[in-house]
Amino acid sequence: EVQLVESGGGLVQAGGSLRLSCAASGFTFDDYAIGWFRQAPGKEREGVSCIVNSDGSTYYPDSVKGRFTISRDNAKNTVYLQMNSLKPEDTAVYYCAAVGEFTIATPPIRPDEYDYWGQGTQVTVSS
């Protein structure tokens, strides 16, 4: 059974940091790209980062570039999202997702490109 379990969310003041973790099981982790998405109330789910294992490529939208860093530890089947200089507009439920790298040609940045999803972890940034 494929499982993605996010952790590390919480309440933090603006300017603070959080590190989210995504623990994966039930599939060959090394063969999968992992993405982080977020969804705020009333808004569409948006990608905030992804990492491709085969070539190490990463992706960040302008809204988080320079503040968020994605990394993966294949020995632990875990992907991390380090979030620094957090802003109130970063408040959302954060999800990790996985897609087989054999099915993609470019770093996957859209939600519909992913096959498996976690349940999400809440991040709240107070002003």
Order of helices and strands: EEEEEEEEEEE
Strand content: over 45%
Largest sheet: 7 strands, mixed
Low-confidence stretches: none
The helix content is under 10%
Radius of gyration over alpha carbons? 14 Å
Our measurement of the CA-to-CA distance between the termini, rounded to an integer number of angstroms, reads 40 Å
Inertia-based shape:
globular
Query: What is the number of helices?
Result: 0
Would you count the extended β strands for me?
11
Averaged pLDDT, please?
A: 95
What class would the helix/strand composition place it in? Answer: mainly beta
If you had to describe this structure to a student in words, what would you say it looks like?
With 127 residues, this protein is mainly beta. Helices cover 0% and strands 49% of the residues. The chain has no helices and 11 strands. Strands 2, 4, 5, 6, 9, 10 and 11 form a 7-stranded mixed sheet that branches. Strands 1-3-8-7 form a 4-stranded antiparallel sheet, with no helix packed on it. Strand 7 and strand 8 form a beta hairpin. The radius of gyration is 14 Å and the shape is globular. It starts with a strand and ends with a strand. The model has no long low-confidence stretch (mean pLDDT 95).
